[in-house]
Design goal:
- This protein has 457 residues and is of the alpha+beta class.
- Helices cover 35% and strands 35% of the residues.
- It is built from 9 helices and 20 strands.
- The chain has helices spanning 8-16, 19-38, 45-63, 72-101, 109-114, 127-141, 168-189, 388-407, 437-455, and strands at residues 117-123, 146-149, 155-161, 191-198, 202-208, 215-232, 239-250, 253-262, 267-269, 272-281, 286-293, 299-305, 310-311, 317-324, 333-338, 346-351, 365-373, 376-384, 411-419, 425-433.
- An 8-stranded antiparallel β-sheet has the order 8-7-6-5-4-18-10-9. It has a 5-stranded antiparallel β-sheet with strand order 1-20-19-3-2, with helices on one face. A 4-stranded antiparallel β-sheet has the order 13-14-15-16, with no helix packed on it.
- A hairpin with a 2-residue loop joins strand 7 and strand 8.
- Helix 2 runs antiparallel to helix 4, helix 4 packs antiparallel against helix 7 and helix 7 runs antiparallel to helix 8 (388-407).
- The longest helix is centred in the first third of the chain and has 30 residues, at 72-101.
- The protein starts with 7 loop residues before the first helix and ends with a helix.
């Protein structure tokens, strides 16, 4: 027996269309995606070295585990999956196209033998009488039928519903490819970065994460933080809400002003999205202190920054050594150090909420914290993804294609009238569905009962 030897191109085509390739690729994509979940992506080298050590860090860096979704091997898996999906679709499309647009209008005995839903009866009515009745019956109970009359006197009916449902799987395949294309567009032409802006200042750059050194990106416009505020849950320092009031300046024009940015309510401008993500103190705070001489009752006010030295009326130097916005749940407090020449430093704490608290210390001078000003920085996660709308289109098509592919079916009915002796007519009645066979069988049985009643047999 001679066996035709396949060419290299035929073997390559069969490999691209292989179901085994699909399963293996999906398993590899699922397994490698776990790596991207377990290992935090796009962190600084210092963070990775602290967690994994130098040897493991070098291995993971070489394998691209720290930026896995942009690594050559992960993109290669996606490309292989896309190639496999496209090849499978191309291979099967001609057959489906023919089924939809060039259906079998004339059912022979071989076709009827393949149908699990089939009935054969003999009617006392003539083919001409039944021809009209069956056409009306199919139109009323299923779908309008196409009629083909053979030279042997046989009359063939073909009716179908939702033939286009067979293309649902191709819409699903196309949607997956569109989603991958959108992800690639976002990966190549977009970015994810961060920026910390001190309130009252502005910037026109953000910084990409990952790599040995953060990489700056010019936004093409300026972001200014006019005010930052944070609210805490009562009795705790756990933030309840933190908010940045920002402005956008583009080409010297203030295009956005007093725009509030909070968690889950980002700011978007020119396709770049700013997400409120963090905050913290920026630089040393400044204080307003009131010092009262116990003996005379005379007071003096000082405006100092943390660590800045000053002198009391008697000449002794002092400074604000430390500060807490919520000292042991008593509110803002400053740690004061008096540093007399050649003597031991005297340190104590004054509370803004209790201005007479320091009087209990019994010193010659009574300190009270009148006010303080601690500038904050606000941290933004910044993202640009020009492929997001492509991904959304793909997701919508994926839902539509999945509904069509899994819940709708292409149903077909064939009827053949065969003239018999004595003016009788043999009737073959069969149907098929490409999906949900149990449901179609129930519907076919019900239609079969009505059909027999129509035939009068």
């Amino acid at each position: 027996m001679n066996t035709k030897k396949r060419s290299f191109l035929e073997a390559l085509w069969d490999f691209c269309c292989s179901l085994k390739l699909t399963i293996i690729t999906l398993i590899l994509l699922s397994a490698t995606s776990v790596i991207g979940t377990v290992i935090q992506q796009n962190r600084s080298p210092e963070e990775y070295l602290r967690v994994y050590g130098e040897t493991t860090y070098r291995i993971f860096e070489t394998l691209g585990f720290f930026n896995m979704y942009h690594s050559w091997w992960f993109l290669g898996l996606l490309a292989l999956f896309s190639l496999n999906l496209t090849a499978c679709s191309i291979k099967r499309l001609p057959r489906v196209w023919k089924t939809v647009f060039n259906p079998v209008l004339v059912a022979d005995d071989d076709l009827y033998r393949t149908l699990s839903n089939m009935e054969e009866v003999v009617s006392k009515q003539s083919p001409d009488t039944l021809k009209t009745k069956i056409g009306e019956f199919l139109k009323a109970n299923f779908a309008p039928a196409r009629v083909t009359e053979g030279e042997d006197g046989k009359v063939h009916f073909y009716a179908e519903k939702m033939a286009w449902a067979r293309f649902g799987v191709y819409v699903t395949h196309a949607s997956i490819l569109i989603i991958l294309i959108g992800a690639i567009i976002g990966s190549v032409f977009g970015f994810k970065g961060y920026v910390n802006i001190v309130e009252g200042t502005e910037t026109n750059r953000v910084w990409l994460r990952g790599g040995a050194q953060p990489t700056p990106i010019d936004l093409g416009f300026t972001v200014r933080v006019d005010k930052f505020s944070v609210d805490f849950y009562e009795g705790t320092r756990r933030p309840k809400l933190y908010e940045s009031i920002v402005a956008i300046i583009d080409d010297g024009v203030e295009v956005k002003k007093d725009r509030s940015v909070i968690v889950n309510d980002p700011l978007t401008y020119k396709g770049i999205v700013f997400y409120q993500s963090s905050y913290g103190p920026a630089g040393d705070p400044s204080f307003v202190l009131k010092v009262t001489e116990r003996a005379t009752g005379e007071s003096q006010t000082y405006n100092l920054r943390q660590g800045q030295p000053a002198r009391l009326p008697g000449g002794e130097p002092f400074r604000v050594a430390n500060f807490s916005e919520n000292f042991q749940n008593f509110g803002p407090a400053a740690r004061i150090e008096i540093m007399p020449q050649g003597q031991q430093v005297r340190a104590f704490t004054v509370l803004q909420a209790f201005p007479q608290f320091d009087a209990q210390r019994g010193d010659d001078y009574i300190f009270s914290l009148v006010d303080y000003n601690q500038r904050q920085y606000t941290g933004f996660q910044v993202a640009k993804d020009p492929g997001v709308w492509v991904v959304w289109i793909g997701c919508i098509l994926l839902m539509v294609g999945s509904v069509v592919a899994f819940f709708l079916a292409h149903r077909r009915i064939w009827v053949t009238l065969v003239p018999l002796d004595g003016g009788k007519t043999g009737v073959k009645f069969g149907g098929a569905s490409n999906r949900n066979q149990p449901g179609f069988e129930l519907a076919f049985d019900e239609m079969k009962k009505k059909f027999k009643q129509e035939l009068g047999s």
